[in-house]
Amino acid sequence: MKSKLLSIFAVGMFAAMAMFSSCNDDTSDDTEVIYGSTQVKSFKLKANTNILSGLDSVFFSIDHTSAQIFNADSLPMGTPLNKMVVQITTDGCSVVELNVPRKNDTDTVINYLTNSTDSIDFSNGPVRLHVVSYDGNSQRDYTVRVNVHTMVPDSLYWASAARRTLPSLLAMPKQQKTVRTADALVCLTSDGSKYDFAVTDNPFDGEWLVSEHNLPFIPNVESLAAAGNTFYMLAADGTLYTSPDTKAWSSTGEKWCHIYGAFGDKILGLKNTDAGYVTVTYPPSTEAAAPDKFPVAATGQLKEISSAWTSKKQVVMLGGITADGSLTNALWGFDGDKWARISDKFPKPIANVAIFDYRISHTDTISWAPTQSDVLIAMLGETHGKLNDKVYVSRNAGLDWKEGDDLVQLPSYITPRHSAQALVWSTTATSARSSACQWAEYQPKPLPRWWVPAQPFLPQSRADQPITQWDVPYIYLFGGYDSDGNLKNELWRGVLNRLTFKPRE
Questions:
Q1: Prediction pTM value
Q2: CA-to-CA distance for 70 and 63, rounded, in angstroms?
């Protein structure tokens, strides 16, 4: 009985082999796919928490067109590469060899099919993966790279060399205020008797047009504001002046005690009347009594934001001094109709804080893939007689705040100060460019051409042509005063490292 079953089985196998051979004779391409394939189906790293948590979750792209294997999302700076164990799946290849480069020596060749647990050293450059098809008729070499950042990508980087003095003709300026118009940055500096205005539409290269202006009034330099391309400033007696170009100034006839900043083509301010503090706008509109515990002085920068909780345009300001002389930690917002207290969750009362919106990056330590989100950042300022040295971040339009992690804190060489302005200005990034006007340039390491994968199953880019330039939002930090009221004659430039990288196409 047993021998009969074996005989039937042998006949069936012979018939199946004959049919399969016949099909292959008719379609020679199928034979090439089945027996001649040199395809690498998957590539990953084996888990090793001594190297990095989640190492086995790092995604590797396989570009079969150019025979490149790489992780587009680079591993954290400092990740050791000399003891990686890889896991490779092929299409039944008869030879799978890893040619590992060594310094000043011949390559080490590892037979993956017999020694799949051997560690691979990627620290000396790309590893060549040599595969031979099952039938031995085809072979191919893949270039394998394990990418590691050469800088901390998720950090705010303020290069110690990316610093210059404030744009001014004055030898020793004592006051400064910088504002943003619709298409330029304007910096006002003063030594108490002379007033210089510096204008640029290209702060990256330090191309400022500086001139001394004779003003028809004694200005409150800190009150300078811009709405669109119109400038406003208070005189020492509180008179509100306006100018279309910073050269010709005229009185509005209004008397204010404080300017908060711009809302569209208007500025927002405060009057001190016999009936109490009144919030106002210019050009004029209906005045309203200031809300309870509303800040009347030393407020931070006014910043326009977009929020999921409102369909209206909105500006916010953080901190300040209230009418009773106390510091506040509240965030107030204005939507074009009225002021409202949005949150009081900032960690501490603060005055003269710098606040700006930005994109910040967070890397998932499971997959090591970066994600970006829009945030508000608050830094510097003063609180209860001392200067604030921490940077705080809000991920929900100012409702909640947390102290930023070490990656976003200011370096020790940017000392604490108050009344500084942090303004974001995007610059088009292309090839390396020379710096000018006392800037010392720092360039991110350019990414190699294999940064952009050519995989059909990856998300498609919205770009309709190769990306050769992109906008990088740099932060420019102007001036500020130390605890004795002395002006910091400094202009710093910072950036989130990851935003300098070429975007994926």
A1: 0.67
A2: 9
